[in-house]
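[job 0412] stage=fold_complex status=start
inputs:
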Amino acid sequence: MPSNKSVSDAPIVQFTNCRILRDHRLQREDLWVREGKILNPEKLFFDEKGSADLQLDCKGSIIAPGFIDVQINGGFGVDFSLATDDFKSGIDLVSQKILSHGVTSFCPTLVTSPPSVYHQVLPQISVKNGGAHGAGILGAHLEGPFISKEKKGAHPEHCLRTFEAGAFQDLLNTYGFLDCVRIVTLAPEMKRSSEVIRELTKRGICVSLGHSVANLSQAEEAVQHGATFITHLFNAMLPFHHRDPGIVGLLTSDKIPAGRRVFYGMISDGIHTNPAALRIAHRAHPKGLVLVTDAIAGMGLAPGRHTLGQQVVEIDGLNTYIAGTKTLSGSVATMDTCVRHFQEATGCSIEMALEAASLHPAQLLGIEHNKGTLNYDSDADFLMLNDNLYVQATYIAGQEVWRQDASSM
Amino acid sequence: MKLIILETYSQASEWAAKYIRNRIVQFGPGPGRFFTLGLPTGLPRDHPESYHSFMWNNFFKHIDISPENVHILDGNAPDLQAECDVFEEKIKAAGGIELFVGGIGPDGHIAFNEPGSSLVSRTRVKTLAMDTILANARFFDGDLSKVPTMALTVGVGTVMDAREVMILITGAHKAFALYKAIEEGVNHMWTVSAFQQHPNTVFVCDEDATLELKVKTVKYFKGLMLVHNKLVEPLYSMKETGAEKSQSKKPYSD
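[job 0412] stage=fold_complex status=done
writing structure:
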């Protein structure tokens, strides 16, 4: 068919015979892509009188936006909290490998570490687009060291710090470099946390509450100052109590400022949270649920001993503990496993499960106009999945970057 | 006129679809072109209720039509009358309309040729009757001020020039219009009645649309269904050989 595209000569690809996730529903529609973005076919048809250059039959697959993992500590032997000489190649390796899990964008996460580690590692992390080389990096997630001693979990006690003395300046001195930082997890009950939260929020950094013994009003105050996320709900915080729900109470708090939503990360690997608890959280506040892996270096490798920053962890099946203890430390779950487990445990719709790993993290980071959806003009980062939510192919900016059977298109 | 009466809305739709398919195959499309009829003015092209959106979502996106072959009147053209005149020229240049498919309004209008429209009118700008505006309000959340009040439409005369006309009428609310269209005289207050003077018309309707017709009329045409069904069975396909296609597919005329 002659095509007379007045806007651009770039090739137009039409993905047919598929169901796409749009407007919160799986719809039988074609997906059109041009120049790395999702294209509006009606506009193409009427305004440009254009048509597809290439039509690809998706054989009835589900097409969903690429997954976004906002808490991942490493994988395949790479630990983001270790300042090694080949750190850059380590992060490249992980970003390439997680394509097969359906992750198209992620936030490399650093656990509590000494300042020297931050000073060495952070300048080596840069926000960059994904592609054939690997998933895109949205920015670092710094989990600690400004967290509570009582809820340190797997974080090393000797590295914990406070910002009582100099508030935000202390934080800046510890991390050294904030340019590429996207999320900071801290404990809001710490003195002067409000100032710090306000300052971080002002710089566009998402503040998350976690590893904390805060009560509900401390948590609500933190939200009022700008906090928008909860790090791995239920884990490393006070348990829900009916007279003081603690941080968990944020899910149904009436003190959240108008127009804002509190999001909460959940590691749905079947280990960190009992399915019943997962269901309670999901039913209380479905739109805030963000699936995260909290994966550690041992993810993708055989069971045994691996590092997590300054600690040694032991992996046995899906369980990951600080060596010699029963303290959970991260997980070896992959994102697509989390999505499947979440869907099974809660019995929610496929659309809901997929959005918890794509739309919600994008909304958390304020990038939903670009990522996390298949809306027109969004980045064409998407996945082809079968009906059981196994990833068959991963696309970034409209290019296939991974396919199930390992042979290319 | 052939009056085809099916029991339900979906059966009527299916019959019409099969008939159109057979006609297309018989037409032997090559440089065949499509024309689409009338649009309200003032609606931006990408408004979800614009004709462009309607045609895209319900028709164009499901078929492999080349965008150059789509001609929809542009309600936002700077010179509306010129837009209409050009449309008429394009129809002539394409060799005239082979088959015109349309519905009727509860007031018996064809396209947007409201009651009182000249039966020899051409493509032009038309003000919409209050009935039509009320009927369209449902697409604008019931807000009457948002509904367009004018439309570009093909004229009754334009449609009469087509070599064949098919009108789809379903639902009880169209019953009175159908009665006026086929059992009463030719009248510009019920513009569909103009097709009584067209040599080749097919009306496809469901039971509910016949509620105002004489029992005699309904029985007569139902009795002809055996013969009329030969128009949709066998169902032809583009994949058949040239020899079969060139045979006339119309076993009779009325």
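[job 0412] summary: The mean pLDDT of chain A is 92.
[job 0412] exit 0
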